[in-house]
Structures are given as C-alpha cells and as structure tokens.
From TrEMBL:
Ligand binding (S-adenosyl-L-methionine): 109, 152, 161
Catalysis performed (reactions): guanosine(18) in tRNA + S-adenosyl-L-methionine = 2'-O-methylguanosine(18) in tRNA + S-adenosyl-L-homocysteine + H(+)
EC category name: transferase
Family the entry assigns: Belongs to the class IV-like SAM-binding methyltransferase superfamily. RNA methyltransferase TrmH family.
Record-annotated tRNA/rRNA methyltransferase SpoU type domain positions: 33-171
Name of the protein in question: tRNA (guanosine(18)-2'-O)-methyltransferase
Function field: Catalyzes the 2'-O methylation of guanosine at position 18 in tRNA.
A GO term, aspect molecular function: methyltransferase activity
Listed Pfam families: SpoU_methylase (PF00588)
Keyword Protein biosynthesis: no
C-alpha cells in the first residue's frame, strides 16, 4: 500500500508544473506492451531503446544480459532511466518465464519471418516485443518460444535496421494505434500512485535525508 501522506509530503516539495507534468505523462503510460532486448553488446543501443520506450509511453523495459553485463549509457538515455522501469535478467529463460507469468504473449521482431507485418499486428493482446542485435538477431531460444513474429515493411536492398531504429518505429506505431483504440491500456490507479511516489523521490535531491526526517516526525505504527 502507498503511504498517501508521505506522497503528499513529497509532492508538496515539487513545483506545481512538475506535478502536473507527472500526471499528464502517466495518463499516456502503458504496460499493455512491454519491450525486451537480448544481449545487446553496444550500450548505446540499449539506452536508445530505453529512450524510445520513455518517449512513446512504454513503462517497462526488460534487459537480458546473459552474455554481456552492461550499464545503461546515461548520455544516450538522457534521463529516461529515471522514468522507465528496467527489469534485468541474466538468462533468456528467466525473462520469458517472467513475462509469460504476467500474461504477455512473446513477439519476436525479425525481418526473416512472414507471420505479420507491422500495420497488421493485433494490438488487443498484451505483448512483449523482443529485439535482438542487427548482426545476430534473436536467439533460437526466443524464436522457438515466440507466440508470433513481427516485421517492419521494407522496400530497399537492406534487410535489417539497427535495433534502436527498428524499436523506435515499432513502438511508435503500436502505441499510437493503442491510444486511438478502445482497449483498456492505461496504468491502474494503484500503478499511477506507485509511479508518482517513485518519480517524486527521483526528482528530489538529498531524498534519503528528507525521508529520514519525515519518518522521524511521523513514526510508523
């Protein structure tokens, strides 16, 4: 349960403009779609995907680091790591199991399958969109466990796009269609409260000292 008094205390420190922006952004956030990237060696690609998630309203990014343990490139993410939830996994199986337990269908993005073009993709089902590297693509484990395949229509000689580019195109297209639909895609009231609290904490300098002072003055029962 969210401590509403504590939330009110923290938000009282913020400017009215920032609080208003939080509510406006949260109105367009969704967990109906989530994004997963697999073993992306170049940090800036994962960071760029995170930035696309933030810009287009995807709340969660799943990062599989089975082979390459990498930190998020803050310069590329440009602060997106403060507003997007990052779920880290050290194995493909762990990520697949977690997402399936949450009710997501596994969608592999690849130019080599003929299952579904981007504009024809069924947006009604909660979906986890998996992206691999430009050179190697997604692993056999993900391809074998995929419930469907999705690709971007291309008419040139080049067969693939950089992961950050393909992710941006797909996320923008699907979230734009989602917001025009009658699907219940928004965060729940409880999820919005959780994000308001976290974002308020991320916005306040010296939050640990402020938090300690609050609970000293307002001891928990």
């Amino acid at each position: 349960m969210i401590d509403l008094d504590y939330l009110a205390f923290l938000e009282n420190i913020l400017t009215e403009n920032r609080k208003s922006n939080f509510l406006k952004v949260l109105e367009n956030r969704t967990k109906h779609f989530t994004v997963a990237v697999e073993d992306v060696f170049q940090m800036h690609n994962t960071s760029a995907v995170m930035r696309s998630c933030e810009v287009f309203g995807i709340q969660e990014l799943n990062v599989i680091e089975q082979r390459f343990g990498k930190r998020i490139d803050k310069e590329i993410a440009l602060g997106a790591q403060k507003w997007v939830d990052i779920n880290r996994f050290d194995s493909v199986s762990g990520c697949l199991s977690d997402l399936k337990s949450k009710g997501y269908q596994i969608i592999a993005t690849t130019p080599h399958e003929k299952d579904c073009m981007l504009e024809d993709f069924d947006i009604t089902k909660p979906s986890a969109l998996f992206f691999g590297t430009e050179k190697e693509g997604l692993s056999k484990e993900i391809m074998d466990n995929a419930d469907g395949f999705l690709k971007i229509p291309m008419v040139g000689f080049t067969e693939s796009l950089n992961i950050s580019v393909s992710a941006a195109i797909i996320i923008q297209s699907l979230t734009n269609r989602l917001r025009r639909s009658d699907i219940n895609w928004k965060l729940s009231d409880e999820e919005i409260l959780v994000k308001r609290l976290l974002w308020a904490k991320n916005s306040i300098k010296d939050i640990k000292r402020i938090e300690e002072r609050y609970y000293q003055d307002n001891p928990r029962n």
